């Protein structure tokens, strides 16, 4: 669909960041979660963030951060968006937005139709919900997809994005089937754990332009 926003998550090098920008990504994501193969220290995330041009939004991904980690992360990295990928509450997100003026996104694991009802609890608290496959080895970035047909007829209560197992080969179908206004991908564009492939980044962004 024309104008689909594209987030490339788990960027870890200047080269892959440049590839995402060149390919037209609207958002690039940096993961600060030590158990992830895509983990960046705050200093490394800040270094990459400094290379993000103004037309692209920098998303910092955190999982149930303590107040200290959250404050340090915002101060050091200066993200445009913080993506909360744990069990953070609507109240916590609303407080974060009020305190920082930054966008707050919340990942939601979609298991069944009932999972989608949770999205409504973030209306007015989050700027966007990211519908993702349920956690397995990691809270996200597992390369697995959920049943997209669950979104058929779904009346989204706030801005949203589709994540989980998206690749250059399936993203066009995903957009057609779900009408997602934003697609987010990570492991499907890697050539080895934690390292993205510049050709796959380009192919993914191209495939979203349907
Ligand atoms: O990517 C990670 O390593 C990660 C670790 C902990 C929490 C979330 C994580 N990623 C979240 C993302 O935004 C991913 O892009 C999203 O889950 C989709 O991942 P994938 O299925 O690999 O495309």
TrEMBL record:
Residue stretches making up the N-(5'phosphoribosyl) anthranilate isomerase (PRAI) domain: 6-206
GO molecular function, one term: phosphoribosylanthranilate isomerase activity
Entry EC number(s): 5.3.1.24
Reactions it catalyzes: N-(5-phospho-beta-D-ribosyl)anthranilate = 1-(2-carboxyphenylamino)-1-deoxy-D-ribulose 5-phosphate
Keywords: Amino-acid biosynthesis, Aromatic amino acid biosynthesis, Isomerase, Tryptophan biosynthesis
CDD domains, alphabetized: PRAI
Keyword Cell division: no
Pathway annotation from the record: Amino-acid biosynthesis; L-tryptophan biosynthesis; L-tryptophan from chorismate: step 3/5
Gene3D superfamilies, per the entry: Aldolase class I
Entry-linked InterPro entries: Aldolase_TIM (IPR013785), PRAI_dom (IPR001240), RibuloseP-bd_barrel (IPR011060), TrpF_fam (IPR044643)
Family note: Belongs to the TrpF family.
The name this protein goes by in its record: N-(5'-phosphoribosyl)anthranilate isomerase
Gene source species: Erythrobacter fulvus
């Amino acid at each position: 669909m024309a104008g689909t926003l594209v987030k490339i998550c788990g960027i870890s090098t200047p080269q892959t960041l440049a590839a995402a920008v060149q390919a037209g990504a609207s958002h690039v994501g940096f993961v600060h979660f030590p158990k992830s193969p895509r983990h960046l220290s705050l200093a490394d995330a800040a270094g990459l963030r400094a290379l993000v041009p103004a037309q692209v939004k920098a998303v910092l991904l955190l999982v149930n951060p303590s107040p200290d980690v959250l404050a340090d992360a915002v101060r050091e990295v200066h993200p445009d968006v913080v993506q909360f990928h744990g069990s953070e509450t609507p109240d916590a997100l609303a407080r974060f937005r009020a305190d920082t003026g930054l966008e707050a996104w919340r990942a939601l694991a979609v298991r069944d139709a009932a999972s989608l009802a949770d999205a409504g609890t973030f209306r007015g608290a989050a700027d966007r919900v990211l519908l993702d496959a349920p956690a397995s080895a990691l809270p996200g970035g597992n390369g697995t997809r959920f049943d997209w047909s669950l979104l058929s007829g779904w009346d989204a209560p706030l801005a949203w994005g589709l994540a989980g197992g998206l690749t250059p080969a399936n993203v066009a179908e995903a957009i057609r089937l779900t009408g997602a206004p934003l697609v987010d991908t990570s492991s499907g564009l890697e050539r080895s754990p934690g390292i993205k492939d510049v050709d796959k980044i380009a192919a993914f962004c191209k495939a979203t332009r349907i």
